[in-house]
Specification:
By secondary structure, the chain is mainly alpha-helical. The protein contains 15 helices and 7 strands. Helix 1 runs antiparallel to helix 9, helix 2 runs antiparallel to helix 9 and helix 13 crosses helix 15. The chain starts with 7 loop residues before the first helix and ends with a helix.
Length: 309
């Protein structure tokens, strides 16, 4: 295996980018707390942009809230269900009798066709016919299965039941943030463990056996350590010290274009080229300085940002 340490920072950036900020976690809890109903609808993409939390860690936070007895997932549905007719709608209606025929007629009545795609007014159908959302969706899926329409599904809405509103926002924020930081530390440590393995002066086969609980005393005699001895992974790129960068000049475009106050974490992610929801929302990736320090260790950049902020 030929390797060097040049891209370690890139691997670490994926991990650091998935750790939600405290402000985002607090925003999520406030969103739940302010919902007076016991039913909570969550549009993940929109909420991700609003809280500046990536989709995957946002879903993870919702799982933690479920484990803490605050939320319980109920069901999910697609907010938009555009379809196009593959048969004449009168022919499709003719495939049904009695009440089912009236139901399909109602669906088509409150559907508006553009050039190709048809969009239905689910709320109007529910109000007029008295059918629930699930029955409407199942009817469309049935028509799609029969090959009479082509159905697409856009914008998932996750529906949760709020089991209790009496949780403390500060305590819960601290708990979830500490959990996320603990996961971050663990994942960063795994990268270091991999480096330590490749640079080990012990038999690699024996190290692997020990890792999986099989304690082998004898050396294998055919791994790189046994045949050629210990190796040391090199860094082939020499980076100038961060002190040579002018913080105000490097971040001026970010602070000018961002329609929000960037936190040190956000500034660090921007400079390290880590994608984050606000970056997409405000098109920050278009700025020349995005990722300008991506070769530097994230922690070093973060410390530099905090010192100069």
């Amino acid at each position: 295996m030929l390797a060097n340490k040049d891209n370690i920072s890139v691997l670490e950036n994926f991990i650091y980018g998935d750790t939600p900020e405290e402000t985002g976690i607090r925003g999520l809890l406030s969103f739940i707390k302010d919902n007076t109903s016991s039913s909570l609808e969550i549009r993940l993409y929109s909420l991700s942009l609003e809280l500046n939390i990536r989709m995957l860690p946002l879903k993870t936070l919702l799982v933690y809230l479920e484990m803490n007895g605050i939320l319980e997932p109920v069901y999910s549905y697609f907010e938009e269900l555009p379809f196009k007719y593959l048969m004449e709608k009168e022919t499709i209606i003719g495939e049904f009798d009695d009440e089912r025929k009236k139901f399909i007629q109602c669906i088509f009545q409150y559907s508006k066709t553009a050039k190709i795609w048809t969009r239905l007014d689910i709320e109007r159908i529910m109000e007029t016919y008295g059918a629930d959302r699930i029955r409407i969706i199942r009817a469309l899926e049935y028509l799609d299965e029969k090959g009479w329409i082509e159905l697409e599904r856009h914008h998932t809405v996750e529906v949760y039941e709020i089991l209790r509103h009496d949780f403390d926002i500060n305590d819960t924020t601290n708990s979830l943030y500490n959990t996320a930081k603990g996961k971050e530390t663990f994942e960063i440590k795994r990268i270091q463990q991999m480096l330590d393995f490749f640079e080990s002066d012990n038999c690699l086969s024996r190290e692997l056996s020990n890792y999986f609980g099989e304690h082998t005393v004898q050396k294998c005699g055919h791994c790189s350590v046994c045949t050629h001895g210990k190796v040391e992974l090199q860094s082939t790129v020499e980076l100038p010290p961060l002190s040579e960068f002018n913080f105000k000049k490097t971040t001026a475009n970010l602070f000018e274009k961002a329609d929000f106050t960037p936190t040190p974490t956000t500034v660090t992610r921007f400079l390290c080229g880590v994608n984050f929801p606000f970056g997409s929302k405000f098109k920050l990736k278009e700025l020349a300085e995005f990722g300008i320090l991506k070769k530097y260790p994230y922690r070093s950049v973060n410390e530099w940002v905090i010192r100069n902020r």
